[in-house]
């Protein structure tokens, strides 16, 4: 039996009988400090009941701000944070309506994708040549001249080394 259950039992026995607290705590083997701790554990018991009553009275469609204002109008002094925490512990969740999805007749692509207007071979030709494949640019011509000049100088250098 837990201390909380023992505390509830002691409270009931104290109301029904006139036995002293020391005798009841001794017979149930719970210390007086544990009894007092468990008794004070739910100090918001009345507030929980009020929150549940207000929340259910609003049809479960009002949040912590509404509940807090109603409690303040009734004279209860409590912070919004406590109201939020107690509502979460009690399972008071506001039921929001889910928004319906807008109608759309779109079902995805019906046919294959259209063919591209260029082919892979023409792309390769443009990449490998300088400029357009039909008319090379002057920059490309200059590059060709440079590479041919390098190759001729490299061949003459190698022939001079061998001699």
Question: What features would you describe in this structure?
Answer:
The chain is mainly alpha-helical. Helices cover 61% and strands 0% of the residues. It has eight helices and no strands. It has helices spanning 3-16, 21-27, 32-41, 45-57, 64-74, 80-90, 120-128, 138-162. Helix 4 (45-57) crosses helix 5 (64-74) and helix 4 crosses helix 6. The longest helix has 25 residues, at 138-162. The protein is elongated and about 95 Å long. It starts with a helix and ends with a helix. The model has no long low-confidence stretch (mean pLDDT 78).
Keywords:
single chain; 163 residues; 61% helix
Percent strand equals under 5%
Radius of gyration: 44 Å
Mean pLDDT: 78
How many extended strands? 0
Structure classification:
mainly alpha
| SS summary, helix count | 8
Looking at how many chains there are and whether they match, the oligomeric state comes to single chain
User: CA-to-CA gap between the ends?
Assistant: 108 Å
Major sheet details: none
Helix fraction?
55-70%
Give the helices and strands as they follow along the chain.
HHHHHHHH
Low-confidence parts: none
Looking at the structure, what is the overall shape? elongated
